[in-house]
Amino acid sequence: MSLYPTFEDLKVDGLMQAQNQALIDTQSNNPDAYGAIATYMGLDLNNFYYNEFGELVPGSPPSVPGVPVTPPQQVAVCASGASGTIVTTNSSPGEIKHGVRRVVLCKDAKGKVGVQLVDVDNGVFVSFVRAGSPAAIAGLRFGDQLLSICDRVLAGHPGSKAMERIRKGPDNNIEVLVRDRPFERTVVVNKSSSGDLGISIDDGLIKAIHKDSSAARNGLLTDHQIVEVDGQNVLGLKDKQLKELLQRCGSSVRLTIVPYSIYKHMVKRLWKDQIRHEMDRSLPDA
Fold first, then answer.
1. d(CA 97, CA 223)
2. In this structure, are residues 205 and 223 in contact, taking their beta carbons and an 8 Å threshold?
3. Element (H, E) at 43
4. Do both 139 and 174 map to the same domain?
5. Contact yes or no for 131/172 (Cβ under 8 A)
6. Residue ranges making up the domain that contains 136
7. Are strands 43-44 and 48-50 parallel, antiparallel or unpaired?
8. Which pLDDT score is estimated for 285?
9. What is the pLDDT of residues 168-197, one digit of tens each?
10. How far is CA 191 from CA 103, 196, 199, 222, 255, in A?
11. Most CB within 10 Å of its CB: which of 176, 189, 242, 274?
12. What is the pLDDT of residue 30?
């Protein structure tokens, strides 16, 4: 999947692709358009070109005009609709990447996408992804920022209005521009010889960092909620379940964390059982 540094870069690339395709179509439809004027009074005009001063000079031009610019490879991401196929992303959704990506969603047989949105600081963010839903299959994650829906920019919109745009949108080809989880970050920590990560947790919240631990050396912070373990969502899990999952991990564990204040704001309208039993927990390579 192509990632772009800005919203504008993504849009410009789309225009470039359309322009290049139009140029290719024109060239393929008119292969002999200038064949009849290739010679004039015995001169081969193919051996002349106009220089930067507008003068007709002999020789070959330094560059061939009209050659399409090759854009970065684009991979569409689409969830399964009521009748449709599934196209999934090639990159790991557990990895936070700096950039803007395009996701194309479809509604399921019930007309649902399987996502809930909330506004934070004039932006719209994903607060819930239902397991097995089109949103989950397409790779949307908790904390992703939605920049636009079907070319409508969402800056300053409440989450309810963004949800309304999705509900009123088409059954297929709901184009969403996404920035990966800007409030979250990943920290890789190594287990000690006893298998300890060096953290104390309470309901998934990091309450303490143990002295001289890998967590301390790598800058893990207290008052942060653990969102993912090695790319798998763990929100809503009981501490016993979370600790068992951490024990099953290898010697190095990648933790995705978010400030607790942000987390509480994002989930304040969700039922605890909804997070615990219905949240998407698919693995990054699924």
1. 23
2. yes
3. strand 43-44
4. yes
5. no
6. 1-6+73-182
7. unpaired
8. 58
9. 999 999 999 999 999 999 999 999 999 999
10. 36, 5, 11, 18, 12
11. 176
12. 59
